[in-house]
Write a structure and sequence with these properties.
The structure is a single chain. The chain is α/β, with parallel strands linked by helices. The protein has seven helices and eleven strands. The mean pLDDT is about 95.
């Protein structure tokens, strides 16, 4: 199996290295990751400028490619032919923070897996639910171990077209993780605020700030699984149509639109 590994934190991030080392135990690995941090970049397609790619090495000497494009650009480059050997699976991560609920629309980690699905490839995003204020060096080992197990199992099954897996892993020792739950997206609670400041010339500029998001730990959701100490695996389909609401909208008074 040929696995493309990418992330949104940049090619030098330790979470990427841990994921690459885990995937090397599963199959052949090619690395194509951004040359800088693209956290919370969302689903980007770079059309207004050329994208450049160069060769580099990870901290353990593993050869890699790095691009000045977004995570989704990296996947598109690989899928469209920059990587000549056919790709069997795309894995993204390991992100140092959870991507649950509405986070999936912001996350470069998850949208890299979305780009894989758009290109007809299985995509899996991995995130570690570590605290924002953790003072020490994060150990991605347990999460990488779990990622390897999940990729092996996913490889046995054919993901439906336009479907990806979003995996969140508790920030616990491996022996303290209770197991795995297949979940749905939960409800994130954001506490965003707009911070206005002035530059030295008196011109205003803005930061979108606020406290770290929380969530509703409802049973059956990714947030509930994290809260209970379980790995969360959420299948996400790219068809975001509100199918149930379409029937109700058929009864709206649309007037004489279209004559």
């Amino acid at each position: 199996m040929h696995i493309l590994v990418t992330n949104d934190d940049g090619v030098t991030h330790p979470g990427l290295l841990a994921l690459v080392q885990s995937m090397q135990q599963v199959g052949e690995v090619t690395v194509l990751a951004p040359d800088r941090n693209w956290s919370a970049s969302g689903h980007v397609k770079t059309l207004h400028r050329p994208i450049r790619v160069r060769q580099t090495e990870l901290a353990d000497g593993t050869p890699a490619f790095t691009s000045d494009g977004a995570p989704s650009d990296c996947v598109a480059l690989a899928a469209l032919g920059f990587i000549e050997k056919p790709i069997d699976m795309v894995v993204s991560g390991i992100n140092p923070y959870a991507n649950m609920g509405d986070d999936v629309t912001y996350s470069g980690t998850v949208t890299a897996a979305m780009e894989a699905a758009i290109n007809g490839l299985p995509g899996i995003a991995f995130s570690l639910d570590s605290p924002l204020d953790f003072p020490g060096v994060k150990d991605f080992g347990p999460a990488a171990n779990i990622a390897g197990q999940i990729v092996k199992e996913a490889a046995k099954h054919e993901l439906p077209r336009n479907t990806l897996l979003n995996v969140n892993i508790p920030f616990l020792f491996l022996e303290d993780i209770k197991g795995l739950r297949v979940t749905r997206l939960g409800l994130r609670v954001y506490r965003n605020e707009l911070v206005r400041r002035d530059d030295p010339y008196g011109r205003p500029y803005y930061w979108i700030g606020g406290e770290a998001p929380t969530g509703v730990p409802e049973e059956g959701t990714d947030i509930g699984a994290m809260n209970d100490g379980y790995v969360s695996v959420t299948p996400i389909h790219m068809d975001m149509s509100a199918h149930d609401y379409m029937d109700e909208m058929q009864h709206w008074d649309w007037g004489n639109l279209g004559g």
